Amino acid sequence: MSTEKDFAFSKEAFDNLQDQIGSFLGGASEALEGRHDSLTIVGRQKIAEHWRPELIKIGNAMLRKKPADIRFILEHKLVQEIEGEELAKLYRLALESAKIDNAVQGVYTAETLSKYRTALALEQDASSSGAQIIALTTKNKELAELSNVVPTLRKKRLYDEIAQLTYDDPRFKAINERLGLSLKDLQKGAKAGNMVSFYGAGERTQALNVEGKLAKALGKQEGTLVVKARDRDAVLGEISAQAAKYKRFAPDVADELQLLRKQVKDVFDKGLDPGDALMEELWFLSPESRTLVERMTRQYDKVVTPNDFKSIAKIMSEHLGNEVPILKSFTRFYGRLAEDYLLTAKPKSADFDWKAIGRYYLFGGKRSKELRIPSLLAKQLGIKPGTKVKEELFKRLGWLPESGTLHDIVFGVSDSKTRRMGGKYLKLEIAQLKTLFEVKLFHANKLPKRWTNVPSVNFDGKVIEQNFTQVFEEKLVYKDAFGNWQTNIIQVPQRSSATWWEQVIGADGKMQDIADVSGARTAFGVNANHSNDAIIVKRLHLWGRDNNVSTSTIHDAFFTSASEMLRARDALRSIYAETLSSNPLLQTLAEMRARGLPEELYQKYLTEAIETGLIPVPRRSRVGGRLLTEEDILRKEDIMKRVPPGFKSNFGWYGVG
User: Residue 442 — pLDDT band, cuts 50, 70, 90?
Assistant: First the structure.
């Protein structure tokens, strides 16, 4: 149960709350941001101060709970400027603002605020967390500055930088003469597009993400028709399905339908009027799809098509690649590495930890408080086989440190730091009838003979197993309990076939999963990045546990009490800095080599990683055609650079919030 101290407020905690209010309101709309810059500390304080009276009015109306107050809240200008999904946050901040004002009676001093008690949990998001993780992994200072890993004079949201470059691009200006998008609108679209772009997504996915954000803004414009790719594809899908029905017995009709599909696609992509003749040919469309096409026959001031969104996404992607080239090379490198590992790594070439193997064979694999004496040794000592020596005996003799275990003193290395691999070794079988010789040397972490796991190493030095197996889709048709026919699509793992000899002798365990190389190429780098993201989240929770601070997270959003948020922010900055102690990419390459990645491929990827700056080496690595120097490599001291206390200077750490 929390104590009163857990909820104690302070002037610094209040200023931090104002910082978040200013950031939230300033980022919501240009009208709320006004003449102040919501990407600076001072600007946020000014925005929060300007709107504080209105927030307090909304909060007091919520506290009164009168019928007339509901109308006042819903019609308030602040509420009108906030997107529907963000209203809950506005109300939460307004309610807290009113409670604070009532408690301090409008006098905001360190003394009055220290008497206030709060149960408010604040949320502060990481700034472009995916880019931050890549910056920390590659120690790229340029990317670290663009994603707020290091202190700066102004919050540098990567997507804002790309949005500004896109907004000033002549190609976008030509498109925008017709669309009329604001920079704020473009910033929201850039955020959606950039997030998937540097994770290696294709052009179509980027365009769809940009479309999802910009379509919302354009849809509010009067006299504007927004045609989404999803709607277009739904109509085209029905035409393709109709063509498939005729392909077998009336190929000429199927060809005509494919031509019709092309015409309809042009209608959507170019914003054309389909005309009555074309509409008559689309008689087979479902009512929903027919309505989508009929919208094109009406008169609009402007029609926004999927091609517009595609063009905007392409311009953004180009600027992202030019500004921070290491972003795209990062995921592509990881993808190619995973693909080559699956295709070339040989289990028989893997390193084996003979010390760990012998330890298990002699003493068992579990960390226990008693030592089992091997039968052979027991016979030589003339004692009963299976005799166990208790850990307490070693402690009494002074042979065991207070913090140590029996396992440590006997072997010197803990299980968690030792990797063991494989199944049975030196096994000889004849026709599966009789085992002549078998030594069970491998017990834990068994890997298949042709493995489908690809290892990656995270900031904690832990090996993450990513499994990539091929699956195929199978249609399952059946009757349910009510006699109705149901159709489900199930995914079935692909497996290799047993040889004729294995079938004759009835050998088991010979069917092997088949690796999904294309899946590894696209997902490996993304998953590795998310694993490192999770390490930062985990370390914050551990910090909270050690410092008696309640913490919570949702992906890259960090929650804690408003009174403790500043401490949590400082802890996060230290956590960011500590990640530089590791080199996940180098460790991943080493782990792959230990598991059988050919030496020539290991050297090839290591050289490439160094030369492209993924593993930066001064005066050898190049990023964007420029040779890196010592100053280009991110250091702990760069992240931990001193910033002025309080909220009166713009120089600060914008990594979260």
Answer: very low
CB contact at 8 A, 1 and 556: no
Residue 81 to residue 595: CA distance in whole angstroms: 56
Lowest mean pLDDT among 204-213, 270-279, 515-524, 552-561: 204-213
The dihedral built from the CA positions of residue 275, 278, 280 and 282, taken in this order, carries a sign that is negative
Say yes or no to pLDDT of 639 above 90.
yes
Helices 41-64 and 67-75: crossing angle in degrees, nearest 10, is: 150
Rounded CA separation 381/602 (Å): 49
Contact assessment for residue 619 and residue 628, using Cβ atoms and an 8 Å cutoff = yes
Burial class (CB within 10 angstroms; exposed 0-12, middle 13-18, buried 19+) of 430: exposed
**Per the structure block, which two tokens stand in for 141?**
């200072």
- Please give the structure tokens belonging to residue 554: 């949702």
Question: Looking at the DSSP assignment, which residues form a beta bridge with residue 553?
Answer: 558
- Report residue 629 as tokens: 């120097």
pLDDT of 225-261, one tens digit each?
887 888 888 888 888 888 888 887 888 888 888 888 8
- Rounded to the nearest 10 degrees, the angle between the axes of helix 11-28 and helix 41-64 is 90
What tens digit of pLDDT does each residue of 183-199 get? Answer: 888 887 777 666 555 55
| Structure tokens that stand for 131 in this block | 């880019």
- 630-643 b/e (C-beta count within 10 Å ≥ 16 → b): eebbbbeebbbeee
Question: In whole angstroms, what is the distance from residue 368 CA to residue 383 CA?
Answer: 21
Distance CA 176, CA 171 (A): 9
Separation CA 183–CA 163 (nearest Å): 7
If we measure between CA atoms, which residue out of 410, 408, 411 comes closest to residue 354? Answer: 411
**Strands 557-561 vs 434-439: parallel, antiparallel or unpaired:** unpaired
Pairing state between β 471-479 and 622-623 = unpaired
Structure tokens at 530: 């998310």
| DSSP letter assigned to residue 128 | T
DSSP structure string for 505-537: HT-SS---B-B-HHHHHHHHHHHHHHHHHHHHH
| Contact (CB, 8 A) for 391 and 399 | no
pTM, two decimals, is: 0.75
Rounded to an integer, what distance in angstroms lies between the CA atom of residue 491 and that of residue 48? 52
Q: Counting beta carbons within 10 angstroms of the beta carbon of residue 108, is it exposed (0 to 12), middle (13 to 18) or buried (19 or more)?
A: middle
The closest of 628, 539, 655 to 138, measured between CA atoms, is: 628
**C-alpha to C-alpha distance for 144 and 151, rounded to whole angstroms:** 9
Phi and psi torsions of 226, nearest 5°: -105, 115
What tokens were used for 569? 């922010």
